[in-house]
């Protein structure tokens, strides 16, 4: 160690001196070493990659290795011979460096090209490193090109750049190109541990993880940050003093926040938010940090994407553990709420309220909203996420004691009971599972439950049940539906609780008619819809009989769109549709489609009214 020597910053002191000690570029250094071993040297190399990943270091190591007088058995520079020491001291005649960022004129390049003609006095090669080569002026580029084309045998050019796309093709085509990677968090943490042990600094891995994250892939930055923290903590780098020193928000907050979301604990979420603000962190910073945390949970949830997690192994384990407690749909819904908050933040008149509302909604994703909130929420104009706050702040909101019939209290009285009697059911429409052909699953495309409806017209199916129980693990019972989460057409996509307004038949027919009117482009589906007659088949179920398999197919194709529309219109997320091909056509065939539709309309005042309001006619 360096007791008597002046202080040298770690980035310089621990600059790699051999290929083996270059951090995080193993494949690339192996290739370079092989090239040197086999004596197949190119005359020009281009090292590309972000800053701080070891391009210049590798160039120097390369120059040292090809000139070393007694290389080690494994092909590294010895570090002690005259040539190695001259390069280390920075006064080797064989190594010329030019920083094109500040020396980009024709004259600067000319000083290089003139030196190229002087052969090495000792050693075998003269190496010219041109850093940030993309900064050369056009004239300088052109002046350089001739030399680059036919350099003397003893010359090797190593050009380095952070912006490969700015290097002109004529230069690119003359170079062997090496792409340096960003250094991974784990590689950095390992190297920092090594440096710390050499310096007698105690550390913990979480702290080094934070430093590595802050350095964003650049080892040089990581070492500078490390120096800073080590100095201010007097040689004892802990997680706590690191986040304080670097003004980083403790990721623990995010974990606790998500715990609060999972258990629907609005109070905890709001208090955590206050805590974060009290520490001086900006609300938007927290919102974005939270979004990043959700993203990290999402990639941690799937072993295939776990490698996208940029964090130390210890924290990765925490991510994986927390992600196990969350259903996949939650991530999208949560990220959507957070991005909405981010988008609306700048224009919100009360930013704190906006953030608090977002947190409340996040708490409600996995627990059913209480009826008052549900009612308020539903009156919001479509797609306006910021309108609710004032009311949403009412104290009773969101503390989410599961209500057995969410939404029911907000139902207008006249549409309460089911009106199964509203029209005489043709015999064929009575669901007949025994002979029914394929059954279209309304949640087609999602692997969530299909609620295969048996002919349970009378049985009040346990529809609201899935909403209620809050499972101990925080994982919802598998009742999530397409319209709850995925398709973003739903302005309420942010919530995972079910709306379950009782469906009146008139209202259903109105929804049916409106979908037809609004989607004329779906020709086949529309004509199938017109030709069919939906009949209630349970509290939240409708049965549709069609005459031809082709019509069934039309329903299948557009089912997600149709079911989503109907669910939103009827404010009932439990609605299912069962489409069947009429296996006994005689009974239903009497009426041609047009007549049939007339009959439907005549039986449904709402539809009739709707059609006349639209000034539409049956065709
Ligand atoms: Zn040597």
Mean pLDDT: 77
What structural class is derived from the secondary structure elements? alpha/beta
Report the C-alpha radius of gyration, rounded.
35 Å
Globular, elongated, flat, extended or rod-shaped: what is the shape? Answer: elongated
Number of domains: 4
Q: Helix tally?
A: 26
* Sheet with the most strands: spatial strand order: 2-3-4-1-5
The overall strand count is 10
Q: What about the largest sheet?
A: 5 strands, parallel
- The helix content is 40-55%
Poorly predicted sequence stretches spanning 5 or more consecutive residues: 370-495
Distinct small-molecule ligands in the complex? zinc ion
β-strand percent reads 5-15%
Distance between the termini: 92 Å
What does this structure look like?
The chain is of the alpha/beta class and 619 residues long. It has 4 domains: 10-179, Rossmann fold (3-Layer(aba) Sandwich); 185-246, Helicase, Ruva Protein, domain 3 (Orthogonal Bundle), CATH 1.10.8.60; 251-392, Zinc Finger, Delta Prime, domain 3, CATH 1.20.272.10; 428-614, no CATH class. It is 46% helix and 8% strand. It contains 26 helices and 10 strands. It has helices at residues 10-13, 26-37, 55-67, 82-89, 106-116, 138-149, 169-172, 185-199, 205-215, 219-232, 239-246, 251-262, 266-278, 283-301, 313-323, 328-345, 351-364, 371-378, 389-392, 482-485, 505-518, 523-531, 549-570, 585-589, 593-603, 605-614; strands spanning 44-48, 95-99, 126-131, 155-161, 176-179, 202-203, 236-237, 533-536, 541-546, 576-581. The strands form 3 sheets. Strands 2-3-4-1-5 form a 5-stranded parallel β-sheet, sandwiched between helices. It has a 3-stranded mixed β-sheet with strand order 8-9-10. Strand 2 (95-99), helix 5 (106-116) and strand 3 form a beta-alpha-beta unit. Helix 12 (251-262) crosses helix 14. Zinc ion is lined by residues 68-70, 77-79, 81, 83-84.
């Amino acid at each position: 160690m360096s007791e008597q020597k002046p202080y040298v910053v770690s980035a310089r002191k621990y600059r790699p001196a051999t290929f083996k000690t270059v951090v995080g570029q193993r494949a690339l250094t192996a290739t370079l070493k092989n090239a040197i071993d086999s004596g197949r040297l190119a005359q020009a190399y281009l090292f590309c990659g972000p800053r701080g990943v070891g391009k210049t270091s590798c160039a120097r190591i390369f120059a040292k290795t090809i000139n070393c007088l007694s290389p080690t058995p494994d092909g590294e520079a010895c570090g002690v011979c005259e040539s190695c020491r001259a390069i280390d001291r920075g006064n080797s005649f064989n190594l010329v460096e030019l920083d094109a960022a500040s020396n980009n004129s024709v004259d600067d390049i000319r000083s290089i090209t003139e030196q190229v003609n002087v052969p090495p006095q000792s050693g075998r090669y003269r190496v010219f490193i041109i850093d940030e080569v993309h900064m050369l002026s056009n004239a300088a580029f052109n002046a350089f090109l001739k030399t680059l084309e036919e350099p003397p045998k003893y010359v090797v050019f190593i050009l380095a750049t952070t912006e490969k796309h700015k290097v002109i093709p004529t230069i690119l085509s003359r170079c062997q190109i090496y792409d340096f990677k960003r250094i991974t968090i784990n590689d950095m943490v390992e190297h920092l541990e090594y440096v710390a042990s050499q310096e007698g600094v105690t550390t913990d891995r979480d702290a080094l993880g934070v430093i590595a994250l802050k350095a964003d892939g650049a080892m040089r930055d990581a070492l500078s940050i490390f120096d800073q923290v080590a100095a201010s903590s007097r040689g004892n780098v802990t997680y706590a003093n690191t986040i304080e020193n670097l003004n980083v928000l403790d990721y623990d907050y995010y974990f606790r926040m998500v715990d609060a979301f999972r258990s629907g604990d609005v109070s905890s979420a709001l208090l955590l938010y206050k805590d974060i603000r009290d520490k001086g962190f900006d609300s938007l910073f927290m919102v974005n940090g939270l979004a990043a945390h959700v993203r990290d949970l999402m990639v941690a949830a799937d072993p295939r994407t776990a490698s996208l997690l940029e964090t130390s192994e210890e924290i990765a384990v925490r991510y994986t553990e927390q992600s196990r407690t969350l259903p996949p749909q939650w991530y999208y819904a949560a990220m959507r709420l957070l991005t909405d908050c981010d988008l609306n933040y700048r224009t919100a008149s009360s930013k704190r309220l906006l953030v608090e509302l977002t947190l409340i909604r996040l708490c409600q994703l996995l627990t059913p909203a209480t009826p008052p909130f549900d009612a308020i929420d539903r009156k919001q104009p479509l797609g306006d996420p910021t309108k609710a706050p004032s009311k949403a702040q009412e104290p009773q909101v969101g503390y989410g004691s599961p209500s057995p019939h969410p939404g029911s209290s907000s139902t207008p009285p006249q549409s309460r009971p089911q009106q199964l009697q509203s029209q005489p059911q043709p015999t064929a429409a009575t669901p007949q599972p025994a002979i029914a052909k394929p059954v279209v699953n309304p949640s087609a495309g999602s692997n969530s439950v299909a609620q295969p409806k048996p002919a349970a017209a009378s049985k009040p199916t346990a529809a609201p049940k899935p909403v209620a129980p809050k499972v101990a693990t925080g994982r919802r019972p598998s009742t999530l539906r397409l319209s709850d989460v995925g398709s973003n057409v739903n302005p309420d996509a942010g919530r995972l609780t079910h709306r379950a307004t009782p469906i009146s038949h008139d209202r259903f027919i109105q929804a049916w008619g409106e979908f037809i009117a609004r989607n004329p482009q779906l020709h086949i589906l529309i004509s199938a819809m017109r030709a069919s007659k939906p009949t209630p088949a349970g509290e939240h179920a409708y049965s549709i009989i069609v005459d031809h398999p082709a019509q069934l197919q039309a329903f299948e194709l557009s089912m997600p769109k149709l079911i989503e529309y109907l669910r939103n219109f009827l404010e009932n997320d439990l609605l299912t549709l069962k489409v069947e091909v009429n296996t006994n056509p005689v009974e239903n065939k009497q009426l041609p489609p047009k007549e049939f539709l007339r009959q439907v309309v005549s039986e449904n005042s709402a539809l009739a009214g709707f059609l006349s309001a639209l000034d539409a006619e049956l065709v």
